[in-house]
Amino acid sequence: MARSKYTEVELGMIADISGNLKRILHLKGVSQTDLSNKTELPTSTISDYVNGKTLIPPGNLQKIADALNVLKSDINSSFKKTQSYKSIPLIDRICAGEGLLAEQNVEGYIHYPFQDSRQPDYALRVKHDSMIGAGIESGDIVFMRYAQWADYNGQIVATLINNDEEGTLKRIKWSEGSPLIKLMSGNSKHKVIEVLPNQVRVFGVYMGHFRPENHQETS
Fold first, then answer.
1. Of 67, 94, 97, 115, which one's alpha carbon is 20 to 30 angstroms from that of 104?
2. Active-site hit among 22, 36, 84, 170
3. Cα–Cα distance measured from residue 87 to residue 110, given in angstroms and rounded to the nearest whole number
4. Strand ranges, E, within 1-137
């Protein structure tokens, strides 16, 4: 049974857990029912955690973290250690029809080097040369923060256009008075794509990138 009153600290923790769970479930394409089945916790209990109604006890937090293949600190930020690095899932493609971080899309895990900064949600291995004008080459690793739209006009985003099987990095732009969204590459060989807002999906915004030491261009 839920407690009748929580402290301000606990309320903040509940809100943090709720937001993190919603994000992780969405990214991994896991439903609350799926999570209930994996953890053997009642669906009503999972719903309370996801919707910020009750605080997850440590035992259930570990069950949920194990079921989602994440750290406890990814769900409850209070478990984060000040000097620990977060493991970022590295994916090799952005595609429709499944969770962005579905297991079949995750190539491995890497670390984000800036501990005190906002941590990315995932990293993407670049396969094409469409953003070389922004210094992003094929084979580079790009850090992304999950978002469903750009923070500002002209931002680099991971995007998927309707009917395409795989997404790409593009610079997204719009103009006042025009209904069309422009998706622009950083390579003059690629044409500007114009679409309506409902024809494009954004899966994250660019946070930075690096070139692996064993860098090899991929086609």
1. 115
2. 170
3. 5
4. 87-91, 106-111, 122-125
Q: What is the CATH number of the domain that holds 158?
A: 2.10.109.10
Which pLDDT belongs to residue 48? 95
Q: At what angle do helices 43-50 and 8-28 cross, to 10 degrees?
A: 110
Mark which of 24, 52, 79 sits at the end of a domain: 79
What is the number of domains present in the chain? 2
Show the domain range for 67: 8-79
> Is residue 185 among the annotated active site residues?
no
Average pLDDT over residues 106-114: 79
Q: Sorting pLDDT into bands at 50, 70 and 90, what band is 95?
A: low
Domain boundary among 33, 61, 79: 79
Q: Which of 36, 80, 84, 130 is catalytic?
A: 130
My answer on whether 94 and 75 are in the same domain is no
Q: Is residue 170 annotated as a catalytic residue, yes or no?
A: yes
